[in-house]
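Good morning,

Both structures are done.
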Amino acid sequence: MGLSRSGELIKVPVRAGERLKQLRSQVGLTTREVADLSRKIAAGEANEEFAVSHARLIQIENDESTPSIYKLFTLSAIYGRSFSDLVSFYLNFGHLAGYRLSIPLASTRQVAFDEYDEARTVQFPVRFDPGFAVEKTNLISRLVEIWREVPVALLEALNIRKQRYGFIGLEDFTMYPLLRPGSFVQIDDQQKPQAHMSYRSEHERPIWFLELRSGYICSWCELMRDRIISIPHPLSPARTQEFAYPNEAEIIGRVTAVAARLVNHREPPPYPAAKSPARS
C-alpha cells in the first residue's frame, strides 16, 4: 500500500519476484534448498535449463532476471502451484483473449478460449427481470436484474468452456450474407452431417465447420460416401467445392450459434464473370 498526493491509500502491485519469494517462504525453503531440488528436476528431464541456481534465484526474486519457461516449470513443481499461476506473475492473461479477437486475419480459423485460472470469478447473470419482454429489442444490462461473481470452475461444469469456436475470416464470403465475415461461431463437435435430409428454409439447414489441408471452411455440406461437397450460400460469390472425405476434409462440427458483425470490413467481391462459349 502507498499514499497518493491527496493522502488516500492506493494499492501498489506486488512485484513478480517478490511473489515468488513469498511462495518460497510459504513452503519453508531457502534459496539453496530450492537450488538442490531443482537439480533433481533437471536430472529427471535430462535438461540443465530446468536447474535454478542459488544466485539465479536471488536475481529472479529481486526482479533482476526473468525466469525461462523451464525454470518456471521447476518452481511450479517445487512450490506446488500451477504453472499458469506463476506465468501470470509476468503476463496478463486477461489481455490474451482481447488480442486474439483484435488481430484481423483474413483466413477462417478455429479460436480457442482457454481458461487459465479455475478459481477466478466472473460477473454472471443470476437473476433476470421477470417483466422483460423478449419480443422487443433492448439492452442486455436491462434484461439482467442481478449480476454476481461466479467461479469460472462452475461455468466449466456447465460445459461452457468445452464448446468449440470458429472465426469467419474477413475475406471469407462463403456463407454471406447468412454468416458475415468477422463473425464468431460456436461449434458442436458431436454432430455430423446426415444424408438425404430435407429443410424448410436456409435458416434450418445445418452449417458445418470443416478443416481442410489448406485451412478451414464454413458452409452447408452434402456427404456422399467418400466425398463431401461444400455448398456456399446462393447469394455468395463463392463456388461449390468437392473434397475427398476424410482425406482432404474433416468435419469439425455443426455451427450452433453465431456472434455476427452488422457492418462488414469490406464488401464482397463481384461474382466471377461467366465464361463465353467457345467459338467453332
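Second structure follows.
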Amino acid sequence: MIRAIIVDDEPHCIRALLRDLQLNCPIVEVVETCHSAKEGMQAVKQHQPNLVFLDVEMPWMNGFEMLELIGDINFSIIFTTAHDEFAAKAFRISAVDYLLKPVDANDLKSAVLKVERKLEEGSGFRHIENLLSNIRQPSGSQKIALPQREGYEFVDVSSIVYCSAEGAYTKVLILDKKPMLISRTLGDVEELLPPEMFQRIHHSSLVNVDFIAQFLRTDGGYVVLKTGEKLSVSKAKRENLMARLGLK
C-alpha cells in the first residue's frame, strides 16, 4: 500500500479526490486529510507518508512554501492545482507530477502508477528539489530535467547551446558536454525552455540567443555560434530572428 496524505484548503476537493482514489487507486491508503499547509506539515511529521497530494494555492502558506519549511523531502508528491500556466510549466521542466482541478480519473491513475514505480525503484527526490529551486530562480538560472533511459539529467538552461530535431527525438547540445538525444519532440522542448532565451531559427532547430556570435545573409542565411558551429536560418524564421537581434 501507498500511505498518503491529502493537503487542500477546499473540503469539496478533498472529498472528490478521496472518492476517486477509492474507486480508481485502491493501492493508496489515505491516512489523513489536511485543510492547511500547517496541518500538512504536522501530518507529514506524524505519519511519514510515501505520498502527499499537495494543493499549490492555499491561504497563508502555499504548497511550495510548505515544502521549503519541511526541508528534506523523503516522500513523493503529486501537486494539485486549478492553474495551468506558470505552475504547470514549472512542473514539466522539473519532471514533477501534477493534476489539474477538477482531477481527471485517468490522469490520477497515471500519476499514482508513476509514484508506485518510483517507490519500487527507490528513486530519489531531486526533481522536487529542482522544482523548488526553479521557482525561486530567474529563467537563466533554472535547471531542466532531460529524460534519460534510467531517469533524468538536470541541466542548467543557460548551458544549452541549441536543440535540433531528430525525427520524434531532439538532440540537445550542451556547453562542454556531449550532445544528448532525448525522447521529446523539438516542439515539446521549446515549450519548456524560456522564450526570452531561445529562438526558433528553423523548423528543425532552436538556438540559445546568447550563443549567437554572427548572423550572415549568404547561402540563404545562417548563424555562427560562439562554439564555432553554423546553423541555417529558414526564410520563414529570418524576419523574427533579425528583429530579435535588433537588426531591423
